[in-house]
């Protein structure tokens, strides 16, 4: 028996039943598990209908219009625009759209879809709404599963079939009366995923015939997981069964419409496409009834991150999100795939380290290939895609708190303040950052990190700056024999005096002058670089020094100045002051 220490029977699980085998009729020869998605399906946003019907405050015409314009600008070609028989607001929006289309304000390749139940009066109203549209799809739906048939409709299979056929025939007559209007048909057996597959097939094939679908004027059969009930493989089997068995397959667009009750809407849609679906309905960022419709943004960007053209434009994902949040009056979660505020951000040390290394490697690879970083293949750990591709900057990628390590801190100092700390100093500084963030319990911003670094390592040796050693003045020159000479006025504690030193470079001459003042310094490590931020022409120097002889403290000091030599002298003075060993 599998080890399981948890308490049995805590929840009344016996009230629920697993999905019924009769809804899954595909035998073991399914082909979807080994398929791959190599091109994008037709994405059809239903935000203005299914998303809208889930809002506490349905969209008015202004909000619907803003949403519609966004969808067009992103590249959607077929857009469900409403349930015109539901309300005056929905009807009026479709009329508004007809005006836009007729005035040429909507591109010719956009096809609006309108949604209707199988009721003649409501079908009439639906057709009234699209009068004047040169192209449209009318989407008919009726629930088909046993529970809905018995409990909601009070009709058996034959009666549901009769209702559907009457409604479909009525639609065909209304469309025939508008020959100039290029109206196509769509059918959704609502609750498809809990309906007997043979019944769905019977209904769909009946409509394919009744509407006389052809490859030139295909019918869309839209098979929803109205309420998710099973693992995504079951839905995939159901879709593959329909894909294989639908009549006049070349005259049928097989569409899916997953919801997200089990949190697997995206998985259902992806497996359904593997199983033969050609069209996917969903909403941006997954708005929709209950836990939402499947999220088209995630689906499309999942493809993108696999090197497949998503056929949609997400190059400014924050602008997309802003419009959707405005129209839905619902926020997008900070952890929402691809679009959340935090999804490109790493707080944790090892992730930051890997990302910082990955970004550096990426820049190097681009340089080697002679291409812009935006063109180079993407291979950065922990970032499934380049944030820049969706309009995000790298600024938010690394953020520092007490979970962070040296890599992230160093990355921020380098990218935001132009300070490229040597490896050992990174570890040293990281401990100071950890102490500060542990104490505050807060995140440290790049500016706060910079300030912390300056306070900790730049102890410049000016009177009043807090160090025991003050460098009051200094000059360096070269003696006739080539040796470097440094002359300086130092204040050590409360004693001031002039000192002179010699060496093979100006820094060693300064160290020699310090020795003359009684301060023993060995420079163990030294590095310097130009500061590459803020348009300054400063230099930074870092020195790891043993101060106070063989048994003295080993400490880092740093200096920043417009003169490289001054920065290096400051770095040594800072180290002395940090060691507190002068005098
Ligand atoms: C899964 C989905 O997303 S389905 C779409 C759901 N969306 C919406 O409902 C939003 C818009 N709907 C509405 O505004 C209203 O429901 C209206 C205007 C369409 C109809 O309103 P009403 O006539 O008051 O009916 P009501 O909303 O109570 O719907 C229930 C009736 O419709 C029947 N019904 C439900 N679905 C359908 C359907 N697809 N086709 C035909 N009849 C249906 C029910 O059996 C019930 O009939 P009954 O009154 O004989 O028992
Ligand atoms: C009727 C279909 C398309 C639907 O909205 C659903 O099942 O959720």
From TrEMBL:
SMART domains: LeuA_dimer (SM00917). Its EC number is 2.3.3.13. Gene3D superfamilies: 3.30.160.270, Aldolase class I (3.20.20.70). One of its GO terms (molecular function) is magnesium ion binding. The keyword Transferase applies. NCBIfam families: leuA_yeast (TIGR00970), PRK03739.1 (NF002991). Homodimer. This is 2-isopropylmalate synthase. It comes from Streptomyces aurantiacus JA 4570. The lineage of its organism: Bacteria, Bacillati, Actinomycetota, Actinomycetes, Kitasatosporales. The gene is leuA.
